[in-house]
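Dear colleague,

Thank you for sharing your sequence with our group. We've completed the structure prediction you requested, and as agreed, I am returning the results in plain text so they can be pasted directly into your records. Please verify that the sequence below matches your submission; if there's any discrepancy, let me know and we will rerun it promptly.
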Amino acid sequence: MPAYPGRITLAAGGHWLSLFAPRSQLVEFVLREKKFRKSMLADLKPEHWISPTLRAGKSFYEPLQGGGVKHFGELKPWAPTMSSGICAQLDADFRPASCLHSRANGHTHGVTDMAEYDGSLYAAAKGDNVVVAIPLDALGEVE
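Please find the predicted structure tokens below.
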């Protein structure tokens, strides 16, 4: 998967899967390397740990912020995505059918859950502390 999964929710014709943070080589390294992870947990404040991120860009001290991701406070176009908001629509056999994304500079990062109700998809984005409603008729059909 391109991102870490949140919850899976039943939907008309299939399911919705929330993907709250993009996978990265750096996070996967920390998950594999026990000695490095122990040192990081012991020596750094939790807000500076290398981990899946619900919302990035709040502090210069975040991992990689000073390493070419930002320059003079501006996000560089080649910078790796540190947080995202992704809602994946799955068909009845759990195959991806479509996907909704918040932009890199968007305000719906860290999607942890979704629900269909009254003709709309409601997505809870914990990273930005918002719930958004997306009209289902604007999304297209799952075949």
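Summary note from our side: The chain has a mean pLDDT of 81.

Kind regards,
the structure core
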